Amino acid sequence: MYTQELKDIAESYGLKLHLYADDTQIYGSFTDDSVDDMETRVQKCFSHIKAWRAKNFLKLNPDKTEVLVLRSKWDNTHGPKTLQLFEDQEPKTVLENLGSVNVSATARNLGVIFDETFSMHQNVSKIIQTCSMYLRNLWRIGNKIPKDSKVKLVNALIHSRLDFCNSLLHGINEKELDRLQKVQNAAARFIYGNRRRKGVTALRKKLSFLPIRSRIKFKVCSLVHKTLTSDAPSYMCESILARQPTGKSVRRDYDQTLRDVETRVPTKKLRNERSL
Questions:
Q1: How far is the C-alpha of 181 from the C-alpha of 128, rounded, in Å?
Q2: Which residues contact 79 (CB under 8 A, 6 or more apart)?
Q3: pLDDT score of 181
Q4: Is residue 146 predicted with pLDDT exceeding 60?
Q5: Nearest to 274 by CA among 19, 101, 34, 25
Q6: Backbone angles phi, psi at 87, to 5 degrees
Q7: Does residue 102 sit in helix, strand or coil?
Q8: Nearest residue to 61 (alpha-carbon basis) of 48, 47, 69, 50
Q9: Predicted confidence (pLDDT) at residue 179 exceeds the cutoff of 90
Q10: Can you tell me whether residue 126 is helix, strand or coil?
């Protein structure tokens, strides 16, 4: 709670802020024409935050400060390579230690790896690497444990990682989803002790394992339901608007599956938009 004032500081410079247990994230959006304006606002914001932290006997951690610029995959023009976080009037030692930060190609956010085009390729690769390691170790003891124990181990070690923040995988490249599906298929073969590459659809049905794509859709639907019932955080509830009944009420006005959708922005404009 002692860092709650940081939200007011960020909002005073047109930026938004998320506070976590041991992590503080500042973000905003800009276009190619407003890069300088964004950098100026970031400099002023961080200078204000530095002064606030010094007043409250706190210190910024240079080793854990990362900057990531998200852009469309259709945007061939890359953003700034470096970003100066403090204004020129700050002490010279501060500028040397944390004055200019390189823009990262990837950044870890609560265990999820984000890349600049939000393709989630690095995150998927990390999930596959971790799950493959566990499966190799499980095969070594597979003939010594019963089937029920295998199912529990797969749910604890494999599915827990496949399902972690999997709503972020909605809409990514189908090839990435196929890579994750192969991991689940390998887990189903482990449970039945089948090393041969045969069809595993029947095995998944016996185990009541939802496919990867269905698991992602289920997670998204669960989040939407919590948002509509106000069980989700306020910033999520504000992103979905309920359908407003018209003057002449019809049955679909009370259909919860119909929602107002914002008008799609032209593709050319989307290519120039970025997020920091």
A1: 10
A2: 35, 69, 71, 103, 116, 274
A3: 95
A4: yes
A5: 34
A6: -75, 160
A7: strand
A8: 50
A9: yes
A10: helix
